[in-house]
Amino acid sequence: MPDARPLSPAAATQFGVSRRWSAVLLAILVAAGITLAPLLLDTYMINILIRAFFVAIAAITVDIVWGYCGTLTFGQSAFFGIGVYALAIIFTEYGFGSWQILLALATAVIAAAAVATVTGWLSFYPGSTPLYASIVSLVVPIVLVQVLYSGGTFTGSSSGLVGFETFDLEFENWFRLAGLCLAAVAVVALIATRSDSGRVLKALRDNDERCTYLGINTSRYRIVVLVVTAIVAALAGFGYAAFGGVAAPENASFTFGTRLIIMVALGGRGTIIGAIVGALSIEVASAYLSGSLPYVWELIIGIALIAVILAFPDGLVGIVKRLMRGVQKKQRGPTTRLRPVAKAAANAEENAVAIEVRGLGKHFGSLSVLDGVQFAARRAELLSLVGPNGAGKTTLIRCLSDGRERSTGFVAIAGHSIDRLPPDRVVQFGLGRKFQAASVFETLTVAECLRVARTHRARPSLITTSTVLELPAAAISVVERSGLADRLGEEARNLSHGLKQALELAMVLSLEPEVLLLDEPTAGLTRAERQAFADILTALASRDRLCILLVEHDLDFVREISSRIIVLHQGKIALDGSVHDIVNSALVREIYTGQQAAASEAVS
Amino acid sequence: MTSALQVESLSSGYGTSEVITEVSFTLAKSEVLAVVGKNGMGKTSLLKTVLGLLPAWRGSVKFAGKDVTHMPPHLKRRLGLVYVPQEHALFQDLTIRDNLRLGLLSDRDFKAALDHVGQWFPVLTRRLQQRAGTLSGGEQKMLIVARALMARPQVLLLDEVTEGLQPSLVDRLADVLTRFSRDMGTSMVVIEQHLPFALGIAGRYLVFKRGEIVDSGGVDAQATERIEAHMRI
Amino acid sequence: MLTVTLDAVTTAALLFIISSGLLIVFGVMKIINFAHAAFVTVGAYAALVGSQLGLPWVLVVPLAFATGALCGALTEATIVRRLYQRPLDAILATWGLGTVIGQLITLIFGREVQFVQAPITGTVDLFGIDYSAYRIVLIAAAVIVAVVFTMLLNGTRLGLSTRAVIMNEMLAQGLGVDSSRVRLITFAIGSGLAALSGALITPLSSVDPNMGVPWLVSAFMLVMVSGGSLLTLAVSCILLGGLQVIVSTFVNPILGGLTIAICAAIVLRIRPEGFARA
Hints:
The complex is a heterotrimer of chains A (604), B (233) and C (278). In chain A, 57% of the residues lie in helices and 12% in strands. With 604 residues, chain A is of the alpha/beta class.
């Protein structure tokens, strides 16, 4: 790796090795503990814990969907219930045996996956809100329970199914089996959420729109996650019923779904460990307390939930982490090295038309925001879009990057018509859009943000966390010039406004776009930052031959860097020409009357 | 006599970056002050800090002698400090009448205020039941200004009211504001790109650059020249 | 057939009263109040207590509204206000509150199902069939709620402030509107309406600590599909409520109970703006 730029290789290896060994050691200890624990516990406790282990697996799936992906779901209980009933119905109908076990397993997996796919399709689509997805997730268990109620003897209706023959295992062995299953699920979940793919999930939670504009089909990601977690939850339900020998509608109810959320909230969302802690402690506590204090116990749980949300949104694990942080302070994750990505095959024509717009219009009812907009821009052009507020500049940017925005007209990016395609597809034609307010992933580190931006070029690993970050040269140059290179391990929310803007630009450049759309990139920047920005943009146009379309208020900045200017006025293109022609035109003087016209005279 | 508005060593910013540094000025009763300077120099942030939409880091804002630095915006508004923002300042889906009603704190004085303000904006009073969103851009600006005047504010903060306005309307607006400040004793802070307009109604000016006042003075025959000298650099 | 039509209209009326409170809270705060079901239950128990005390029905209904409004105001001031920046946490907290209220009611009144006598009994002769007089009263109640609501929103200063906050909260604040007061009052009115509908349901069904829950999902979906206006909410209630009655009558009551949720989800999937005009 001659090009690799190690920031501190010694620290990186030491860190990685010691961490890996301690993780393996911990896993061995946990496994040993689970194997030996039944010898120390009484039967009642073992019985409770076996159920609690299966419930904790379901809680982990809630944590992934809610804590990591940001969808508050009441519906994981439905998938758990599907697993419970798949086993109960098949064992009741066909008896117990090896092919019945396989059939029950297959049914659980297929039914859960199918229901999850439909639920996902209903919940996640461009324009759906997290609130709406949450309500749909509440509908799923309610529908399922109603179906179970109306299933007659097949589902056992409201009394459920009991008395079917099931696995004959010692209590102690059930404990070991369930405990090891939980440990295995937890390890897989921890590895997956910390892997490069896991970062994408957090990115979805932090900023869905930015993900879309990085070419990620966020709806599909969310559906896939839902299907996978649904299958895991169904298998947990399968185990639960196999041990208990009972299937009850409560196993699928939204009440149980809510209970799972409470477990995750109390334990600490987005940590996996928190889900386990929450599930085990609530299951054990309710086994002891719900008998003696039936309604008071529910009351306590409700009050505890409200208190945790108001005062400790990070839950128990969050509190512990906060206490620990006082003791030791460390940078998150292993150190990352930057490496330029191998240049893709020479791009087609150097001066090809990159944006083509014909007869574009945008109307709200009778109000016309854009009308008959028509222009084309080639590669290596730096085209500025100016005009007063409300002229439709930002709307035009939206219409170029999202096929569903415009009312009429034709738009092509790098020769591909964007048709009615959503932004993630348009991005794949070679478009990059930087928003006006810096749009990054607040809780991800700088390196993670950049890696997420590479998702559709370099498929992220499900298992490992890569220490090398391959970026295109243009992105690396922004990272290095802005000083981000020294802060790769820092969370984006701690960056200054100017650095966030630079990070977002680097993320967009990581897409290797042919067309770059920028909406007022210099707003709120210091003078030095603006100058740096101007240099970067000019270099991108001349050296990397990007076609850059820039919305900008500051006419001085525009004059300094543009190769061409379009003036938008009242939704129409008023002027389109060279910098000199436009700046000295009567219309621009009228729009930017007073000092700016005077200033331009001073220059020319 | 206490001044209408007194700003002392005011600083503020976003996140960790300071955009307003140690700004001080006073505004006398019925005085009009023009704040000029290029875009992105913190002029709008100054108004937002004075109003409280952006919390002040240091310094103070006194309104009619009373310290209001940390008072929430809607309470300042009740005292008579009215802000006319640059963007999204109208309720497009409400009628012109409802938009004007929101200029007052109660409906009690609506009739009288409408008669008073309406005389300068006949185009609005003729179409009270129409939705504000159906007005043209210039008419919308007029509505925003009219709404601000409804409450007969003590101090009016105007952010780029002439942007995108035809020259004839700019002159009308200058006329209305001058008369209002003279007749009602309203003091105004006018942020402007449009120098002739700003200097036409103001008695004094401040030049703003990167969050600081770099020059100030009375509006006289040489004012334009002095200001433009700052803009070029 | 006529009975089915009347059932459809009265069901729509009840759904409208329940979801209108949810709608106004959603409009102003952009959150769904998951404690709405608990407030429905609170209203039902308020009606139960009121009628056991021998209060006349014309006092019982306002009593229920006032109880709900008080609970709502307390909820807003102590819980929801702190979670404006975290909408999903806000709905989770209101959900937690819902369980707390449900358990408190259970502790005070017990689990058993109770009944409230209808204020108007018997039937009226309508288009040649005998129909429950009380259900006809519900239609009138829904119309009154709709009219009062529209008058409040369009005819009063508070209504103007509320509409301004719904459309653009920042701007409204800049104009001197005290938006936290608007939120408090809105939440109180929304919760009061939930309780009011709870009181109105009692003569039709039994009273028990979880009675609000079955209505909740339908009300959520109606609010989502209505796209935010009172008029489209009424339309959604009539269309989907009517469909619910038809399915319950001719197919199967359990499927009928799910009709609204399933149809609304499919409508929203195909047309994300729901029944709102584009």
